Amino acid sequence: MAPNPAHTALWPAPHASGAVDATVHVPGSKSVTNRALVLAALASEPGWLRRPLRSRDTLLMAQALRAMGVGIEEGVGPDGTGEFWRVIPAVLHGPATVDVGNAGTVMRFLPPVATLADGPVHFDGDPRSHERPLHAVIDALRALGARIDDDGRGRLPMTVHGGGALDGGTVEIDASASSQFVSALLLSGPRFNQGVEVRHVGPSLPSLPHIRMTVDMLRAAGVQVVTPESGGEPHVWRVTPGALLGRDLTIEPDLSNAQPFLAAALVTGGRVVIPDWPAHTTQPGDRLREIFTEMGGSCELTEQGLVFTGSGEIHGIDVDLSDVGELTPGIAAVAALADSPSTLRGVAHLRLHETDRLAALTKEINELGGDVTETADGLRIRPRRLHGGIFHTYEDHRMATAGAVIGLAVEGVQIENVATTAKTMPEFPELWTGMLEA
Ligand SMILES: O=C(O)C1=C[C@@H](OP(=O)(O)O)[C@@H](O)[C@H](O)C1
Ligand SMILES: C=C(OP(=O)(O)O)C(=O)O
Fold first, then answer.
1. Is the peptide bond before 133 cis (omega within 30 degrees of 0)?
2. How many A from CA of 210 to the centre of ligand 1?
3. Nearest C-alpha to atom 13 of ligand 1 is from which residue?
4. Is the complex ipTM higher than 0.90?
5. I need a labelling partner for 382 at 20 to 30 A (CA). Which of 1, 58, 206, 245 fits?
6. What are the structural domains, with CATH classification, of the chain?
7. Could you tell me if the CB of 105 is within 6 A of ligand 2?
C-alpha cells in the first residue's frame, strides 16, 4: 500500500527568536469530553456538553454512540459560551460498527456500553488499536455476563453481542497496563443490573487521577461510588446500580494539551497565559504547575488564567510520572534542553500507548544528537547540544508536540505528520504559530 502522503509530510518546527509572550486558549479536555459523552448517553434524560473538544478521539466517540442510537446535536451557544453538544439518550441497539481509531478511551469505554445495546456491535480501528491491550475489559465483561467474539488474543477487532442488559457484579482485573480498564467498567456500572465492583489485583496501577476523574463525574451524575479514598478497601471501586442524571457541563481546557505552550515559556524564558485553568480538577495536567516549576519556571493562578513564566534556566528533574504518564513526552522534550540530567520513572506502560513512547522518544531525541536511554520503567536523559533533523512521530500526537518544543530551541527540526495532533488538538499548528507571532 502507498504511504499516506499526510503521514510523511514534514512541518518545519518554528524556531523561537526570543521569549514568547502569549495567551493561548487551549481546547477542551479529551478525557472529560469522552467521559461526559458516555455518561450523557447512558443517562435517563438529555444533557449538555458545552465547549466540548472536537478532535479525532471525541468525534469517533460521538460517531460510535450515534451508531448505537444516541442523538447528539451540535450547536453554538449565545455570546461567548461557545459550541455545545446536546446528547439525547436512547435505547441502545445493534447492529452497529464502532471505529475506535487509536483512541484508548473509545476502545476501552465503549465495549461495556455495547453490552447494554440490543444486537451485535463490531469494534475495529487503526492498526495500532490491534496491539493495544483490551483483554482485561473483555475478560471482565465476560465474567459479568457478556458474550464477546474476539480473535482469542483479547484484542481488536471484536464483536460484543449486546443483550440489552448486563448482570454486572464483582470482578477482578489486572489494570497495570492501563487505568482505562477500571474507568471503562465504572462508567457503565450504574446501568448494570447489580452495578459493578471492580477489584484491581495487578502489581501497579497507572494514571490514578484519571480514575478519580471517572469517579467524580459519576458522582456528579448522581451515582453512588465507594472508592479506596471514601472508606472502601484498597484497589476496590464499587458502583451502585441506578439512573444517571443528565447534566449541563462545561468542559475544562485540556491541561495535558496546555503542556507544549507552558513548555514554550520554560524553554524561551517567556510567559504564557492559559485562560480558564480550573482551580480544582482531576486532570493530570494540573501537575505541570509543580513539575515545570521544579524545572525552572514559576506560575500563578490569576483571574486571567494560569500565568506561567520561564526564568531562562531549565533544570533536569527526577520524577515518578506513573500518575501522569501522558505528560512524559513533553517533559522529556524539556529535559533534553535542560542544564542537568533527568530521570523519568514509573511509566513502563507507555510502551502500550499510541506508540511505544519510551522507544520513540529515545530514538528521536538521540537522532537529533541527544543522549537518552530507556530504563525498565522510564527514561534517563542527559542533555547535549542538539541539531536539526527529522523528528518522526509514529502517529502519536504527543510525539508531534514534543518535537515542536525541541524545535523552539534547536534550528532545523522538521516534524513528520504534524497532522497527527488532530487526535486531541487539530488546531495545534495554528495555535503554535499564533503563540510565536503574538
Ligand atoms: O482515562 C483517560 O482518559 C486516560 C487515561 C490514561 O491512560 P493509561 O492509564 O492507559 O495511561 C491516559 O494516559 C490517557 O491519555 C487518558
Ligand atoms: C495515552 C493517550 O491516549 P489514549 O486515550 O489513546 O490512551 C494520550 O492521549 O496520551
1. no
2. 6
3. 326
4. yes
5. 206
6. 5-27+253-437 (3.65.10.10), 30-250 (3.65.10.10)
7. yes
